[in-house]
Structures are given as structure tokens and as C-alpha cells.
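Repro:
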Amino acid sequence: MKIFFVLFALLVFVLAIYPFLDQSEDSEVLTGLPWQIEIQPDGSTQVFGINIGISQLYDVIAILGNDMELAIIASKDEDGKLEMYYGHYQAGLLSGKLVLQTSADELNIRRWRDNAVKSEYMATGKAKKYILMPDDLTQALNETITGITFIPAVHLDEEVILARFGKPEQRIQMTGVTHYLYPRKGLDIARHENSKEVMQYVAPQAFEQLMQPLIESANKR
């Protein structure tokens, strides 16, 4: 009987401390987190399992699944851009919205728009969304990913950003938003005061071109 009570007490103790045990092995298995950016031998980067500048849209479906929307997003007087949108991306407990940009040429964009199954205004009312017809999807899915935008569902303060992504090479303060720039990773984190953070990923060699308008705007202040 004494042995029973000893074993029972030991079981209770183990269950009590289990949440605090080191589970680093499990956490290392988790992939697809926004700060897991890998520099490839050719200088490109991989994030969310996607090689920016190399992976194509059909590769993304194989990695993230087909719970997505593929459309041309165009503001007024613009041809628009082909984008793939995941409204419910999740890695572990972290979730958010994921948008993948491409560099589809203007001729294809115009043709896909003309053939669109339907078009409708986005929630902001400032841009329209054109849904591609099935016959155009095969060609569109061959387009290469040139950029990724991730908007996390939870707010990330500066402490979390620095702990997860490291110290930025440059920080630009603008009205209502702080940009944390990581050129070697091809990453810009925009931390907004009154809205969710926005993370933009591009190939490192394309980072300067992406950030040039932002830097010029900051220098004019």
C-alpha cells in the first residue's frame, strides 16, 4: 500500500511540472515561422518553406495547401499584379495572413484580366480583384515568387521583434510606424502603432530597390 501511495505521489508531481519541462526538441521540429529565414548557397532566401525568386506558385500549393485565392489585384488605372493569398496561414500557435507576389508580365496580366471569371472590389474599395478563369490557371501557377507579405494575427512589440529577428541593420521612424530593416535577409518589418505589423520579404539582392522609396521619403523629413 505504501508503494502505491509513493508511486501515486510521484505521478502527481510529474504531471504538475510537465508544462515547465524543457521541450526544446519539439520546438526545433516546428517550421514555417516568420523568423526562420535561411540564406541559400545562391544568395536567395527561404522562408515559410518558400525560396523567394525560385519557387513557383504551384510549389507553394504543394507546401501550404490549396486553401488559397489566386487573383489579379489592381488599383484604378493600373494593370495590377498576380497574387496568391492565404487568409489563415498557421505555424504552431502563430497565425496570420500570407500574400505571395509575382512578377508576371503586363501582357499576361492584361489577358488574364480580360478573361477573368469575375471581378469585385476589395474591402478597402481602392482596388479590384480579378478571378482567373480555369484555362489561365495553369500558366499563372508557373509564375515565380518575387515577394512575400506576412501579417501576424497577434501584435509583436519591439522586444519580441528584436528577440526573434535580431538587431536590425537600420531602423527608420516615420509617423505612426517604425521600420526594422534586415537587408541581408531581405526583410522589412513595419511595426504600426494602431494596426498589425507587416513583414515584407524579398530576395536580398532586390531589397534596396524595394526600400528605396521608403528611404527617400525618410530623408525628406
